[in-house]
Amino acid sequence: MSAQLEQKVLDTLKGIDDPVKGTDIVSAGMVLGLQTKDGHVAFTIDIGDPARAKDFEPIRAAAEKAVHALEGVLSVTAVLTAEKPASAQAPQQGRPQPQQQGALMPDVKSIIAVSSGKGGVGKSTTSVNIALALAAKGLKVGLLDADIYGPSIPRMLGLAGQQPFSLDGKILEPMENHGIKCMSIGFLVEEDTAMIWRGPMVMGALEQLMRDVNWGALDVLVVDMPPGTGDVQLTMAQKVPLTGSVIVSTPQDIALLDTRKGLNMFRKVEIPVFGIVENMSYFSCPHCGERTDIFSHGGARQTAEAQGADFLGEIPLDIKIRETSDGGQPIVVSDPDSEHAKAYKAIADKVWYKALEQLGASKGPKIVFD
Q1: Do 166 and 281 lie in a common domain?
Q2: Is 133 found in the same domain as 56?
Q3: Residues 6+ apart with CB under 8 A from 333
Q4: Is 310 in the same domain as 212?
Q5: Is residue 317 one of the residues assigned to a domain?
Q6: d(CA 20, CA 22)
Q7: In the chain, fewer beta carbons within 10 Å around the N or the C end?
Q8: What is the pLDDT of residues 204-228, one digit of tens each?
Q9: pTM
């Protein structure tokens, strides 16, 4: 982070006043989460009361414009956030009406969330390889890293350390590699930066990653969700027209317990669950070929059957999958004819078929094979 640029941004924001409090937004303690990296600036403005959002939009725009005018600033992302008292409004359940959803990502035909009940089960690796497998079918694919606290997509796609650019200073162009578009908070902050943000700040940042990015026309957007059943999951369910969800789990009992929670959460907010993927399903010794069920085996299939969900497939624990993901060359693109890549492609085929079923389409976009 450039301390010099950060101070310039704060000094500039001191010229933006809150008419209600009668002081500037910096002195009022409203500017939070300021991040600067290679000319890209991001911050949130905490307005306290969500009811003030409409009145504060001109102030947010003015703050964004003022900072963008600073020398050396390439792009600015300013987000309004607010802490709403728990009693102010009853929790919303169910999906919003289509007319409320369409404005956020109008040119994306289908949005598929890849989730997990707990961390460390290989959700991001699965997300990336499913997205690449869909692209291999000839589909126009985007990948959104919704894991604000632990973004890993930049490294897995071989884009770590790169930054997106903006043609107009307002809308970011998505990053691209291996034939898919992607966006992550990881492109806007240093890789080892701890995102010490409250829930509303995370929600604002996530919305901007969808609203203020030039995704263009996509057949499918794969969303790599954070683990658990928290704010991000509810925001995606209530504000985005999710076509369906995929849940990733290891076969061990602890992971499956959280998997059931995640499955029930999606059902509660009326998001179709396409099925469960069992990751790290087994280990085959590369030397002798002996198979070992390190984390047990078959638990995800049994859970799917017990919960009335489909079982999408299993992926083994294999060093090649780990090495290719860490190296930015996921196995679906680095070794497309391998058994592991074929397993991911088979899962992607099932997911896309279910997406088309959910959308009520008689056939998908034209698939072109070279």
Answers
A1: yes
A2: no
A3: 132, 178
A4: yes
A5: yes
A6: 5
A7: C
A8: 888 888 888 999 999 999 999 988 8
A9: 0.72
